[in-house]
Amino acid sequence: MRHLLGSAIIACSVIVSTSVFADPKLFNAELKGISRDKMRTVLAGTAVKPIREEDQYWVDKYNANGVLEGATDLNFAYTSNGQFAYAEYKFPAFVNTGKILEVANLVASKYGQPSQRSGNTNVGEASFTWNFKNGMAIVVYRGWPDSTTYLQIKDKASYSKMKAEMDAQDKKQLQQKAKQQQAAF
Description:
Layout: H1 2-16, E1 25-26, E2 29-30, H2 36-44, E3 49-52, E4 59-63, E5 73-78, E6 84-91, H3 99-111, E7 116-119, E8 126-131, E9 136-142, E10 149-155, H4 156-180
Antiparallel strand pairs: 1-2, 3-4, 4-5, 5-6, 6-10, 7-8, 8-9, 9-10
């Protein structure tokens, strides 16, 4: 019983732990608080090829072929005032359930073991999360049945702000559409 209790305490401490490694960066740029304009300048000096960089969209899209092995897409999302919310690599994995472990091991080689794990890597949804003291997180995740894997680096506060702004925008657009069509029914 004592051994079981000790294991439970260790398991709980792993789930809530934060990384002792350096805060996450992309292309040597500190992501916490970086602006859209500054990130675009950083990306201009890399092998990343822009697909769409337009301020009226929440997300800038890039071709990541040749930048990070196995990744095809790299998206950067921002709040309405242009603050970094997240960056996300896409790793297509046609019927390759092991892709999530490959990507998680890549992240672990730089940032140590994840703070949290969930799901079954052999079948179904699964994720690995690294939490950082500065409010950033790295999440490697996969949905199901598509085994495509994503590596997301996010500023948790800015990400929440962006999601709330997107929800408010969607609600406003829906209300405007309903008002425009109100006379038709």
